[in-house]
Write a structure and sequence with these properties.
54% of the residues lie in helices and 20% in strands. A three-stranded antiparallel sheet has the order 1-2-3, with helices on one face. The termini are far apart. The chain is of the alpha+beta class.
């Protein structure tokens, strides 16, 4: 076999370079999967951050309107003692944790329900929490 004939047979091989294309396709798939996992991980982290902000905001709001056990306040006294103070305190606590209060409701008995939203990679992540004294738990 002469040198020129050997070159001709290598160049005429229809499968030459097929492995390179296969490896490039595999690398592209791995990169795409890695990027997808990274975005999903960031979305999960945003959801956890929103839930943490909701928990802390609800706890702060409930603590600010806590009434000692056995003490019953008249509506006008409740307004002066707590009223909207709990929900007003929830907003800055949520903001310090990278979220914004979407809804806040005082449910009576020192119980506060808070919903917050935080920016995430695929839109807004939300978290909901309810906090209050142990005496407000359902049996």
């Amino acid at each position: 076999m002469t040198r020129s004939r050997a070159r001709a047979s290598i160049l005429d091989d229809p499968e030459r370079g097929a492995g390179t294309v296969l490896v490039l396709a595999l690398v592209a798939v791995v990169i795409l999967l890695s990027a997808s996992v990274a975005v999903l991980g960031r979305a999960q982290a945003a959801g956890a951050s929103a839930q943490t902000a909701a928990d802390l905001a609800a706890l702060a709001a409930a603590a600010s309107i806590a009434v000692p056990t056995g003490m019953v306040l008249a509506p006008e006294a409740r307004s002066a003692a707590g009223g909207e103070r709990g929900c007003a305190l929830a907003a800055p606590v949520a903001e310090r944790n990278g979220a914004a209060v979407l809804a806040c409701e005082e449910q009576g008995g020192g119980v506060v329900a808070v919903e917050v939203g935080a920016p995430g990679p695929m839109g807004q992540a939300t978290g909901r929490a309810v906090a209050g004294p142990p005496s407000a738990r359902a049996p």
